[in-house]
Design brief:
Shape: globular
Strand content: 5-15%
Oligomer: single chain
Distance between the termini: 36 Å
Order of helices and strands: EEEHHHEHEEHHH
CATH architecture of the largest domain: 2-Layer Sandwich
Radius of gyration: 22 Å
Largest sheet: 3 strands, antiparallel
CATH topology of the largest domain: Zincin-like
Helix content: 40-55%
Structural class: alpha+beta
CATH class of the largest domain: Alpha Beta
Number of domains: 2
């Protein structure tokens, strides 16, 4: 954890894990501290990406899909929620609510039948908080992560298993 403390003199000190506390007061004009102060001020007014921000990234990723893929997804519903439901976590045997970045629910295209009634549309769920947690721990951009999760779940809509998609990804790396 990072913490900011104030010394008796009123000068702030910034504590980082494994680093001794260094007062910024008299050294605040050093180039490194000037850069750090400007970077911190950029983040002070910034909120975490909202559900609608993630929806916007997903919409943009969906628009970039080839048209013939989008045509196969015309009845697919894409939703963004903060977390999976308890029922989903239990059915997926997830240890925490952060274990799932996304989910496909429905019957994949190759397994659909005219004889079987369609009860609900196929759905892709993107989970904002687990995606943001993953983003914080990896080098990928948020847009790259949302795109990857969306394409992965659409792959299930096309009837591909996780193993199928891993083999496809490995073949292009």
């Amino acid at each position: 954890m990072f913490g900011i403390d104030c010394l008796a003199s009123g000068s702030p000190t910034v504590a980082h894990p494994g680093v001794s506390r260094q007062p910024l007061g008299p050294r605040s004009n050093l180039p490194y501290n000037i850069v750090m102060k400007s970077q911190l001020s950029d983040w002070r007014g910034t909120a975490a990406p909202s559900l609608s921000d993630i929806e916007g990234l997903a919409s943009e990723a969906y628009r970039r899909l080839p048209e013939h893929f989008r045509n196969l997804c015309e009845n697919l519903v894409i939703r963004v929620e903060d977390f999976p439901t308890d029922e989903v976590l239990e059915s997926m045997r997830a240890e925490t609510e952060f274990d799932l970045l996304g989910l496909f629910q429905g019957v994949g295209l190759p397994f659909q039948s005219d004889a079987a009634p369609e009860i609900m549309p196929n759905m892709v769920w993107l989970y904002r908080r687990p995606i943001l947690d993953y983003w914080a721990e990896h080098e990928d951009t948020l847009g790259e992560i949302v795109t990857h999760v969306l394409v992965h779940e659409i792959g299930h809509h096309f009837g591909l298993s996780d193993e199928d998609m891993e083999a496809i990804e490995a073949s292009v790396e």
